[in-house]
Amino acid sequence: MSPESQLHRVVLLPGDGIGPEVTAAVKRVFAAAGAPVEWEEHAVGLVALAAGGELLSEETIEAIRRVKVALKGPITTPVGEGHASVNVTLRKRLNLYAAVRPVRSFTGVTTRFEGLDLVIIRENTEGLYSGVENQVTDGVVMSMKVATELACTRISRWAFRFATRRRRRKITVFHKANIMKMSDGLFLRCARKIHQEEYPNIEYQETIIDAGCMKLVQDPTQFDVLLLENLYGDVVSDLCAGQVGGLGVVPGANFGDDLAVFEAVHGSAPDIAGQGLANPLALLMSGVMMLNHLAETRDDPRCRASSDRIKAAYDRALSEGQKTRDLGGTLGTEAFVDALIERMPRV
Ligand code: NAI
């Protein structure tokens, strides 16, 4: 077997805004760690549009279907008008129904709570993201919140299986079924059924989302795994990111039945794009999740070894005060990557 054929092909979507900066940083760190990955790069978002292409081409969607694993930078979605979200389209077209976002504290990043370690699991395909919006009459518009038994059951089963495999103790569903009795009511019924019939050993809780948010701010350590429908998962992810230092340190993954797209929780950060200031850690941590996924699904210990080296390097860099500006440090993207690579354990 030639050395090239021993590499795992991964689709890389740099995205736009800070996307190209943080993906370039991840590529450098992966190379330094000897990660057995070869990138197949596809332009998406405003960068693809500026080059005369489409925001999201069929070729890109087909490439992810073929390769099965992708690492994705953020993509801008205009507010209030303009094109539909490429992110939402990608998740729907590829049926990436489960978003997973681990939120944990880091030594060296000072926040109100220490030892925070929770996981957010977000339904990724329906709810208010159904995209069904219309004008009823002048001055009246309607957005449809869609819930199906299939998607609510599928995400619930995914969450309980995840919790069992990762030895998590408790799942809490955030909902608003007191008001949205039908849609959130269905979500709760599906989650309860999966708990009772398939995973009775995992502790199960339900919290109305407004009270849940208050508890998350007062003491997030009382939670373990949070299970939420689409919009709640989006909002609560950023709230939880704020508890561990911000969007620069929260990674994510979107899973379908046999596809996985890894991406940071943050967006394209137009306020700092092109200035070399972005924190590449959230995308790098998403890359670490991707290497662990490759280690498990392709049974390749080299992926785990390189993910361990990267993780050791950023844990050490942060604990020694090497930080980008969003975390209270002074380093730009490149200088932070230099500091991280210097601290990477040798093979
Ligand atoms: P944002 O996450 O891009 O930025 C929010 C704030 O966090 C900004 O002040 C930004 O500078 C800061 N920030 C975010 N990531 C950072 C990083 N890695 N390092 C340092 N600071 C960072 O959210 P915003 O401004 O609401 O959205 C901007 C655009 O991104 C919008 O078009 C939005 O639709 C899109 N977006 C895309 C996502 C994706 O591609 N998955 C996810 C969220 C938003």
- The gyration radius over C-alpha positions equals 20 Å
Structural class label: alpha/beta
Tell me the β content. 15-25%
Termini gap: 23 Å
> CATH fold name of the largest domain, please?
Isopropylmalate Dehydrogenase
Extract low-pLDDT stretches: none
Number-wise, the strands total: 12
Percent helix:
40-55%
Described by strand count, sense and barrel closure, the largest sheet is: 10 strands, mixed
- Please tell me the CATH architecture of the largest domain by its name: 3-Layer(aba) Sandwich
Average pLDDT figure = 96
Quick one: CATH superfamily of the largest domain?
Answer: Isopropylmalate Dehydrogenase
- Counting H and I runs of at least 4 residues, what is the number of helices? 11
Distinct ligands, ions and cofactors found in the model: 1,4-dihydronicotinamide adenine dinucleotide
**Large-scale geometry:** globular
If strands are numbered along the chain, what order do they take across the biggest sheet? 2-1-3-12-11-4-5-10-8-9
Series of secondary-structure elements, N-terminal to C-terminal: EHEHHEHEEEEHEHEHEHEEHHH
CATH top level assignment of the largest domain:
Alpha Beta
How many structurally independent domains? 2
